[in-house]
Specification:
The protein has 77 residues and is α+β, with helices and mostly antiparallel strands. It contains 3 helices and 2 strands. The protein has one domain. The model has no long low-confidence stretch (mean pLDDT 95).
């Protein structure tokens, strides 16, 4: 799997984040659905992660939990 690198401003500093496209798809869909900017959503994830965890790992775990939550909600229907 190839990584897709994106650059963004996070808390006033430029940074780049490399994730697989499948994770970007989840992040992008959520940002769009919640009418948030990509940088804003990544900043929220950054603010809530353990400082010892890499940001890319925190975003992957966030995306996985999002998909799991959506699947759980669908299974209750």
């Amino acid at each position: 799997m190839a990584l897709l690198k994106r650059s963004l401003s996070l808390h006033g500093h430029r940074t780049s984040l490399a994730l697989e496209t499948e994770f970007w798809d989840v992040v992008d869909a959520h940002a769009h659905a919640e009418n948030k900017s990509l940088a804003g959503l990544i900043a929220e994830i950054d603010d809530n992660r353990d400082p010892e965890d890499p940001l890319s790992s925190a975003v992957r775990v966030w995306a996985l939990k999002r998909v799991q939550k959506e699947a759980e909600q669908l299974s209750k229907v």
